[in-house]
Amino acid sequence: SKKAIIIGSGIAGISASIRLATKGYEVDVFEANSYPGGKLSEIEIAGYRFDAGPSLFTLPDQVEELFRIAGKNPNDFFEYIKLPVACHYFWEDGKKLNAYADIDRFAKEVQEVLGEPAGSIKIALQKSSFIYEHLSPLFMHRSLHKWETWTNPEALKSYLKMGKLGIFSTMNEANEKLFNNPKLVQLFNRYATYNGSNPYETPATLNIIPHLEFNIGAFFPKKGMHDITLSLFQLSKDLGVTYFFNQKVEEIIVENKIATGIKTSNETKYADLIINNMDMVNAYKTILRKQKQPKLLLNQPKSSSALIFYWGINRTFQELDLHNIFFSDNYLEEFDHIFKKGSIYHDPTVYVNITSVYKPDDAPKDCMNWFTMINVPNNQGQDWDKLIAEARKNILHKLNRILKTDIEPLIEVEEILDPRKIEIKTSSAQGALYGNSSNNKFSAFLRHANYSSKIKNLYFCGGSVHPGGGIPLCLLSSKIMCEMI
Ligand code: FAD
In 327-481, where do the E strands start and end? Predict the structure, then answer.
């Protein structure tokens, strides 16, 4: 049978291995770390378990499809629930809002708490689903780099709707037109952070994202986010995929413009297909260093990164749910710091993710596991130790103010993840969470294709290539890639 080598066991690498194995390929995965999953991993500290990276799960169908193509019933291997409340929002002035999954209930809540007409929410979500309907077939499910994508009837239909798809205004401008209350503008602007972009720059087209969370739903895997990795890893092994851990690939072998194999520090292996799941920028700098460099693509600005405090908290809070947001009083300043000043605003928006609300064994009895995160600039060599110490203080002050509790004495255990560590752990350029940012109108076209146009038999999947970062898009990148193989 034909052989394929996959470099990296990120979620896109694992899903590619499943797709290729079901097509009859013999698949070897080489992974630099000792564990699978890349960013989608977990950590354990003294009785607390944390999902290390992603915390929000949308489009579960993309995971289930992998079990189905392997001839299995997904429900037997991977279980998840739909969240009744997507997120709890808190502001400094004491206002609190529950983003109910039930849209009527959410619209009513918005009217009661913020005095915004319920109709605004419905219009916003209709617009969001309109964008999804017209753009997802084009941008999420196909290669942008093949002629057929642009000439199929669906594409032609979308060209006629260009004006309504938000290409000509920013996300913030569109949201200011939709809502009267600035708190609601802020809430909807936050969706830009789902792919590490700036709502004051990114095109309103990104208003596609609320559709995923509200119209389709926010979900939680019953065994935690890490179960996405573990269940798919198990599925791929059941299909005969072989994993080589602690095996960093040092070079992709290219002969006469054909990729033929890989080298690690101790072996050379040949295959019919080479699939790169490593961050595209770092791949060109390292394992493809001898090849022609796609400079325009390599130089695109990167998405934001994250600073995370994994805190074991020895108390419970009734008012907190799985996803909690404590908003900054000045969102524009916060994003200016992240994207223009390369720094951290003194009043950041704080996200607290607590899986022990749904999965009690993630924390000891009467305790909670707080994954406390703020968006920060990607790594440009800042003095991170200083920035982290300041941010920690500011985060604690903010939580103390809004929760009216002194949080620091409740912290039993602590680990920190910062842009430098993200870069080291998963080899992501500048520790960016989602590859390139989408701050530019043309960014969708400035992502690397799922194949190499210069080197035959070399393919790409993962968050730094088309269609983009985040679990669902990573899974789609493998799908698009495997469909062209
Ligand atoms: P990665 O996870 O980047 O993994 C790449 C793998 O390749 C790594 O295991 C690495 O060790 C390996 N590798 C690299 N170089 C080599 C080499 N030379 N040889 C061998 N192996 C190599 N997404 C969401 O959908 N929802 C969220 O809520 C969310 N939140 C996030 C929060 C954080 C803190 C982070 C870090 C990310 C978040 N994301 C979220 C984004 C999501 O995690 C990523 O888009 C996705 O997991 C990336 O998968 P990937 O397949 O591109 O590979």
Answer: 350-353, 368-376, 411-417, 458-460
